[in-house]
Amino acid sequence: MSARQIVLPEQAPETYEELCRLHAPRPIHHREGYEVASKIVDWIAVRAVNAAQEDYAALMGDLVNAYETEYLPQPGEASGLEVLKMLVEEHGLRARQLAEILGADESMGSKLLHGHRNITVEHARKLGEFFGVKPAVFLDLNVRSRVETPALD
C-alpha cells in the first residue's frame, strides 16, 4: 500500500492500541514504508490531544527520522554532485534522462554529471521531487561563498 492509498480517519483513535491497529509502528526499511509513516506523522500531528496520541506521534516521528538518517542523503555529508551521481546510478538513469527530468536540453544532464554546470535551486527542486529526497541534498550550502566581504576595521 502506498502513502497515497492509505486511508486515515478524520479523527484519531483515542487509545495507543487503536492507533497501533490502524498502523503498527515498526522500523522502516523501504521508501514505501517511509511514505506511509510520513503521511501518518503529518496526520496525527494535527490531531494529537491526549498522551496516547502524543506517544504514538513521537514514536512514528522517531521511526521516520531513523529512516531519513540511515537511507536518505543528508546535507553536508556529500557534495550535491556526489549525491546526484549516486542517485542516477541507483536508478539506472542516463544523462539524457536526467536532462528530461530537469526539463532541459539533452546536454544538460551530461554537463551536470561531469561538473561542467552547477546544480541550480530549480534543478535541486526538480531532482528532489523526482528522487523523493530533500532538494537541499543537491545544493552545496556549506561551501563558503566565493564573494568576499570586506573586513570591518
Describe it.
By secondary structure, the protein is mainly α. The protein folds into 2 domains: 16-71; 80-138, 434 Repressor (Amino-terminal Domain) (Orthogonal Bundle), CATH 1.10.260.40. Helices cover 53% and strands 0% of the residues. The chain contains 7 helices and no strands. The protein has helices at 16-22, 31-45, 51-71, 80-90, 95-102, 106-113, 121-131. Helix 2 (31-45) packs antiparallel against helix 3 and helix 5 packs across helix 6. The longest helix is centred in the middle third of the chain and has 21 residues, at 51-71. It is elongated, with a radius of gyration of 20 Å. Mean pLDDT is 85; it is low at 142-153.
In DSSP terms, counting alpha (H) and pi (I) runs of 4 or more, how many helices? Answer: 7
Categorize the overall geometry. elongated
Roughly how many Å is the radius of gyration?
Answer: 20 Å
Q: Regions with pLDDT < 50 over 5+ consecutive residues?
A: 142-153
In whole angstroms, how far apart are the ends? 62 Å
Largest sheet properties: none
Tally of distinct domains: 2
Count of individual beta strands = 0
The CATH H-level homologous superfamily of the largest domain: lambda repressor-like DNA-binding domains
Name of the CATH class of the largest domain = Mainly Alpha
CATH topology category name of the largest domain:
434 Repressor (Amino-terminal Domain)
Helix share bin: 40-55%
Structural class call reads mainly alpha
What is the strand content? under 5%
CATH architecture descriptor name of the largest domain = Orthogonal Bundle
Topology as H/E string?
HHHHHHH
Mean pLDDT over all positions: 85
